Amino acid sequence: MTETDIRGDFPIFSQDPALVYLDNAATTQRPEIVLKAMDTFYRKGNANIHRGVYDLSARATDHYERARHTIAGFIGARSGENIGFTSGTTESVNIIARSFLAGRLSEGDNVVVNIAEHHANFIPWQQVCLETGAELRVASIDETGALNMTEFANLIDERTRMIAVAHISNTLGTIHPIDEIIALAHAVNAPVFIDAAQSAALYPLDVEKRHIDFLAFSGHKIFGPFGTGILYVSDKYRDQVGPYSVGGGMIRDVGRNATVFQSFPGNLEAGTANIAGVIGMEAAVVYLQGLDRNMLREKADAIAVEVRKGLSGIPGLHLIGQASNISSIISFDLEGVHPHDAATFLNAEGIAVRAGMHCTQPLLDSLGLAGTVRASFTIYNTVEEGEKLVEAVKKLHNFWA
Ligand SMILES: Cc1ncc(COP(=O)(O)O)c(C=O)c1O
User: Fold this and answer.
1) Pocket test for ligand 1, best of 27, 93, 118 (most atoms within 8 A of CB)
2) Strand, coil or helix: what is 154?
3) Does the CB atom of residue 379 touch ligand 1 within 6 A?
4) DSSP bridge partners of 216
5) Using alpha carbons only, what angle is made at residue 171 by residues 398 and 121, rounded to the nearest 5 degrees?
6) Could you tell me if the CB of 120 is within 6 A of ligand 1?
7) Exposed, middle or buried, 252 (CB in 10 Å: 0-12/13-18/19+)?
8) In this predicted structure, what is the pLDDT of residue 223?
9) Ligand 1 centre from 117 Cα, in Å?
10) Which residue from 18, 58, 87, 172 could staple onto 321, CB 3.0 to 4.6 Å apart?
């Protein structure tokens, strides 16, 4: 399949053929199949789930529950019972920090993260540590943007109660060695939370095979709708994840003085769910399952390699993140040009990139940077778009220098 075929799946590119969209790490575009799945649900299948005995509601419930199983298959989970629906990665991390970890932490315990984590996978752990007196241990990265694994290993000990790490750093593009981290964690019986926000679309997650304890991703970064996401919990911890938000739809029995809650994942989904969103997220997963994801990932990576080469020849341009194991996310800093000015200039050239801290302030502070310009490539991006970016950054440099 060529990228022309793939682009044809995304209505935004027929509406605006010249759009060079390189902000895929922030959110991806949606293919027709996803839009159609949600539209069809609202037009032909709309009903609330779990409560109705009539056919329309039963069909909506079946579809919603089927999505759990489809997504379980997509990430290599044993069953849909391991998949909770959330509003996204941020909520999934908060759920585990609050409803699993907080009650187990006390002074002398520690949680291990690293300096490059997205705020979503940093602040929730930081806050439970502050509240309980536990220590947040923050691993550093080396000059290429890779984790310093000797230091990382030394931070883990018998009192480590959680290790949280992104599969791929959203600012540096680094692919972290999660298998090695899981082995280190399990040696001291500590669970690992994998933030797969940047990897779920194109990387096999294999949660069961890799012995991942907790994992999260967001629907909108895998070509699905906003406001959707998942939380995977392994069988080992499934009955230890408590309710987070409480209310209707997640109970077994409610008395005047006490309530018995469903077990995971039912105990997470209080209130009316984002049913159309879950159906749209399932459609995105089915879409991805129909593509050769390995081939498409390699193509996006190959474009990124060429772009990095092109950019690195520009005087005063520094690539931020050059780890040997890197994805198709590229961050750079151009001396004397504020990232927002750079992104504004690129916008005038018809190129959409992100500029700023990318919700990784501890990382940017540690690098002494106010921000970076970030271009992120995915399945519908082309070699020509990569070349256009390099040419536009050269023009920016000539204009500013
Ligand atoms: C690595 C990583 N983690 C977490 C998030 C938060 O995702 P969401 O805003 O969809 O909850 C993002 C979003 O940019 C991310 O890149």
Assistant:
1) 118
2) helix
3) no
4) 195, 231
5) 160
6) yes
7) exposed
8) 98
9) 10
10) 172
The count of C-alpha atoms lying within 13 angstroms of the C-alpha of 342, restricted to the half-sphere facing its C-beta, is 27
Whether residue 173 contacts residue 327, with contact meaning beta carbons closer than 8 Å, is answered with: yes
The C-alpha atoms of residue 129 and residue 105 are separated, in whole angstroms, by 8
**What digits encode the pLDDT tens for the residues 191-217?**
999 999 999 999 999 999 999 999 999
CA pair distance 151, 112, nearest whole angstrom: 11
Q: Which residues are catalytic?
A: 359
Q: Report residue 352 as tokens.
A: 């959409």
Find the angle CA(189)-CA(142)-CA(118) to the nearest 5 degrees: 65
What is residue 59's three-state secondary structure?
A: helix
In 3D, which of 202, 207, 283 has the Cα closest to residue 238? 207
- The per-residue pLDDT for range 170-193, each reduced to its tens digit, is 999 999 999 999 999 999 999 999
Question: Smallest Cα–Cα separation from 138: which of 187, 188, 154?
Answer: 154
63: tokens are: 């579809």
Q: Is 117 in the pocket of ligand 1 (CB under 6 A)?
A: no
The atom number, within ligand 1, closest to the CA of 168 reads: 1
Contact 217, 89 (CB under 8 A): yes
Whether 90 is in the pocket of ligand 1, judged by its Cβ within 6 Å, is yes
For residue 204, say if its preceding peptide bond is cis, omega within 30 degrees of 0: no
Question: How long, in residues, is the chain?
Answer: 401
* Cβ 165 under 6 angstroms from ligand 1: no
In single-letter form, the type of residue at position 136 comes to: L
**173: which 2 tokens?**
């593009």
The answer, yes or no, to whether residue 3 has pLDDT greater than 80, is: no
In the reported structure, the alpha carbon of residue 245 is separated from the centroid of ligand 1 by a whole-number distance in angstroms of: 21
CB contact set of 369 (below 8 Å; sequence gap of 6+): 320, 333
Of 171, 192, 212, 179, whose CA–CA distance to 72 is shortest? 212
Question: How many Cβ atoms are within 10 Å of 133's Cβ, its own excluded?
Answer: 11
Structure tokens at 11: 């209505």
Check if the beta carbon of residue 226 is closer than 8 Å to that of residue 75: no
CA 34 to chain centre: 18
Burial 297-312 (b: 16+ CB within 10 A, else e): bebbeebbeebbebbe
Please report where in the chains the tokens 């329309």 appear, as a residue. Answer: 56
Q: What angle (nearest 5°) sits at the alpha carbon of residue 21, between those of residues 18 and 24? A: 160
* pLDDT value of position 4: 62
Contact yes or no for 281/225 (Cβ under 8 A): yes
